[in-house]
Amino acid sequence: MNITNATSSANTFSDFLTYMSPNVNNAERLVSAAIGGGLLAYGLKKGGMTGTLLSILGGAMLFRGATGHCHVYDAAGVNTLRDEPIGTRKSPYNRSTLSGRVHVTETIKIDRPASEVYRYWKNFDNFPLFMKHVENVTKNADETWHWTVKAPLGTSVEWNARVTSDIEDQRIGWQSTKDSQIPNSGVVEFVGTPENTTELTVTMIYEAPAGKFGEWAAWALGEEPSIQVAEDLQRFKELMENGEASSNASSAAAK
After folding, report:
1. Which residue, 55, 99, 72, is CA-closest to 214?
2. Of 32, 1, 67, nearest in space to 151 by CA
3. Which pTM was predicted?
C-alpha cells in the first residue's frame, strides 16, 4: 500500500469515528443511557475481566444514549431515527443482525381444568399477581391493553397491545400496536388432559429495548427472558393450585 492509499484509508476511518449524525431514536437513547450507566457502575465495582467487559459495554451504551449516534449502526446501515407516521412504524431493527429479537417458548403443567386456567389468564388485570416484572395492565377505550413493565436498572417500558385471537379454553393471541416501544407478539395455549389438568404453553417474540445492546445488557444483568417467563409460569401454577404464589419461584422453575 502506498502512502496516498494509506492516508486515504486513515482519513476514511477517522471520518467514520468522528461522524456523529444521529441514527438512534429517542426511546433507544433513554434506555441505552439508563442501562449503560448501570452497567458501567456495576462493571467498575465488580472488577476483573468480566467487570472490564461490562464497563466497556456500559460506556458504549452511555455514548449512544448521550449522542444519539451508534457507530455499529453506521457500519450496518441501520437507522432507527427515520421519521414515520405514528401507527405505521415498522420494526426499527429491520431483522438485521443487530436486532434484539428474542424468542421464548415455555410450557408448564397446572393441576386445574383448562377452562379455569383460561378464564383466569384472560383477565389481564391479574398479571401483576404472578408476573414479577409487570407493574400494571389496564384496558384502553379502544379495546387495547396498556402495559407497564419493569426494565433493568430501575427503568420501565410501556406499550399497547391487542388480542388477535381468542378461542375459549384453548388459546389467546396478542400483538403490540405499531407505535409500541417494544414490538412484541405471542400466543398462550391451554391444552386439557384426561386427568383434568392443563398444559399451558407461552410462545412470544419481542424486540429488546436498544436492540442487540439491550439484549446483551439484560443477559449480563441476569434478566434472561426465558428464565423470567419460567419463573412467572411457576408463580402462576402456584397461584392456580394453592391460591397464592410463593416467593421461591426461581428455585422451583429451575428444577
Report:
1. 99
2. 32
3. 0.62
**Spatial CA neighbour of 57 closest among 38, 74, 39:** 39
- Separation in Å, CA 110 to CA 48, 95, 166, 187, 238: 44, 35, 20, 17, 8
Please give the sequence-ordered ranges of beta strands (E in DSSP) within the chain, or none if there are none: 101-110, 134-139, 145-150, 156-167, 171-176, 184-192, 198-207
Q: What per-residue confidence (pLDDT) applies to 170?
A: 96
Q: Which three cell numbers stand for residue 126?
A: 391479574
CATH homologous superfamily, domain 101-253: START domain (3.30.530.20)
The residues with which 160 forms a beta bridge, in sequence order, are 146
Q: Please give the full DSSP string across 42-59, using - where no structure is assigned.
A: HHHHH-HHHHHHHHHHHH
Domain ranges of the chain: 3-76, 101-253
Which stretches of 91-192 are DSSP H helices?
Answer: 114-122
For residue 124, what is the DSSP state?
Answer: G
Query: Are 157 and 64 spatial neighbours (Cβ–Cβ below 8 Å)?
Result: no
The residue with cell 419493569 is: 150
What percent of the chain has a predicted confidence (pLDDT) above 70? 63
pLDDT at residue 93, rounded to an integer? 37
3-state DSSP assignment of residue 130? coil
Q: How many residues are listed for the chain in this entry?
A: 255
Q: How far is CA 163 from the centre of its chain?
A: 19
Number of Cβ within 10 Å of residue 200's Cβ equals 23
Neighbours of 241 (CB within 10 A): 12
Taking only the tens place, the pLDDT of each residue in 132-152 is 989 999 999 999 999 998 866
Nearest Cα residue to 41 out of 28, 29, 63, 59: 59
Q: Is the pLDDT of residue 169 over 80?
A: yes
Burial label, 53 (beta-carbon count in 10 A; 0-12, 13-18, 19+): middle
